[in-house]
Amino acid sequence: MGSATSRWLSGFCRLTAQQNPREAATAIAKDHDAPAIVHDASLAYLIHVQTKNGGRPRDRRWEWVIHAFGEQGPELAERLAATVRA
């Protein structure tokens, strides 16, 4: 990505959650937020989930996950992933 304009993420916002993940439609932790992209009726957002628990912090593992919804969801997810990788 070359210029500052090409790095700008159109439709960027922060998606917040007011309920516990088990009670809500998202996996976002209560009272936290996640980077997201919206366009028309589509949405993609990025969270991290624990994939391995352990007694010590170095024994724990986390993975980044993008959830996408709507007709343009997969495209938005790709744009979000590409921005994170950049």
Describe the model:
With 86 residues, the protein is an alpha+beta fold. Helices cover 20% and strands 37% of the residues. It has a 4-stranded antiparallel beta sheet with strand order 1-2-3-4. The protein is globular.
Give the total of beta strands.
4
Helix content: 10-25%
Spans of at least 5 consecutive residues with low confidence:
1-6
| Total helical segments | 2
User: How far apart lie the N and C ends?
Assistant: 8 Å
Identify the strand order in the major beta sheet.
1-2-3-4
Order of helices and strands: HEEEEH
SS strand fraction: 35-45%
Integer-rounded radius of gyration:
15 Å
State mean pLDDT (0 to 100 scale): 82
Supply the helix-strand structural class.
Answer: alpha+beta
Largest sheet: 4 strands, antiparallel
Outline: globular
Features:
alpha+beta; 20% helix; disordered N terminus
SSE layout:
Layout: H1 4-7, E1 12-16, E2 33-39, E3 42-52, E4 61-69, H2 73-85
Antiparallel strand pairs: 1-2, 2-3, 3-4
Could you provide a short overview of the structure?
The protein has 86 residues and is α+β, with helices and mostly antiparallel strands. Helices cover 20% and strands 37% of the residues.
